[in-house]
Amino acid sequence: MIHKKLIACCSVMICLLLKLASGSSNSAVGPTSPGVGDQRPLSHEASDVEIVVTPQTELVLSDLKPVAKAGRIEGMTYRIANPTDRDVTAVVIFWEFSLPEGVRRVISIDDSWVADKPLLSAGGSEEKALDAYARSRTGRTYKIVARVAYTEFRDGTMMGEDEGAASLRKQRKDFLNSYTHLLGVYENRGESEFRKELYGGRIDGFSKARLQRIYGADGVIAALADIRQVLQTWSHLL
After folding, report:
1. The pairing of beta strand 88-99 with beta strand 143-153
2. Helix residue spans in the chain (DSSP H)
3. Is 104 exposed, middle or buried (0-12, 13-18, 19+ CB in 10 A)?
4. What is the DSSP string of 176-227?
5. Residue pLDDT, tens place only, 48-80
6. How many of the other CB atoms lie within 10 Å of CB of 118?
7. CB 71: neighbour CB atoms within 10 A?
8. Measured in whole angstroms, how far is the alpha carbon of residue 187 from the centre of its chain?
9. Please, how many CA atoms are within 13 Å of residue 118, restricted to the half-sphere of its CB?
10. What is the pTM of this model?
11. Which of 61, 174, 190, 232 is the most exposed place for a label (fewest CB within 10 A)?
12. CA 66 to chain CA mean position, Å
């Protein structure tokens, strides 16, 4: 009889300890930090994303809006304004995306150095979409940090970070190298191979888009004229 009572008491005590342990564990678990293994629901809205804009140059970023589709963040739009009295030629923006997989960095470069019109007129603003959005495999984005890292004006003045300037120089070199390559393809192998390389080759995306537009509208003579004019004007950057 005493043995049975002891067993019953032990059972009650074990149950109480389990309940206390369960209550203690639940109270200690708060929201988990974004990171690998985060098991929060996959459904996600644009309003869930924390937006931080760090001012750098004189240009102003605003209205950053993640675009959500079916509970997944798939891209974003933003507005960039030029409150100065000078036209802008190029802008480099650094982006950081906090995702379940970790923080990913994207550098976006808008450049009008070979165009006839400025990228952003004095006092003007423009709404843009970020093409290089860092997507998570879960469709979740917790935080976006953006800053204008470098700006180049049409009057030749520049401001910003060395890394931003280096990114812009690299893109321009890639552009000129692609133009040099395509000119060599035409001169050595003819228009057929030039066209294959223009539409299927591994060349800089900016130069490819520009030349495809010229070639499609006005043919190979116009495309070659643009290549030669750009190389003559800007080959000192190589």
Report:
1. antiparallel
2. 2-28, 162-189, 191-200, 205-218, 220-234
3. middle
4. HHHHHHHHHHHHHH-HHHHHHHHHHS---HHHHHHHHHHHHHH-HHHHHHHH
5. 788 999 877 899 999 998 887 777 777 789 999
6. 17
7. 12
8. 37
9. 20
10. 0.75
11. 232
12. 12
